[in-house]
Amino acid sequence: MKFRTFPKTDLSVSEVGFGLWTISTGWWGDYTEEEAITLLHQARDAGINFFDTADAYKNGYGEEILQKAFGKNPTDVIYATKFGYDIYGEEANNRRGQRELPQRYDEEFLRFACEQSLQRLGVDAIPLWQVHNAHFDAIENDDLWATLDKLKDEGKIRYAALAVGPANGWLAEGIAGMRHRDIASLQIIHNILEQHPGSDFFPDARANDVGLMVRVPHSSGMLEGHYTVDTVFADNDHRRHRPKSWLINGVQKIETLKFLTEGRNQTLGQAALKFILNEPSVVTTLPNIYNVDQLNEFAAASDLPDLTEDDLQKIAELAAINFGVEEEPMKMKGDPMSSLDAWEEKLKVAQ
Question: Against a cut of 0.85, is the pTM above it?
Answer without folding.
Answer: yes
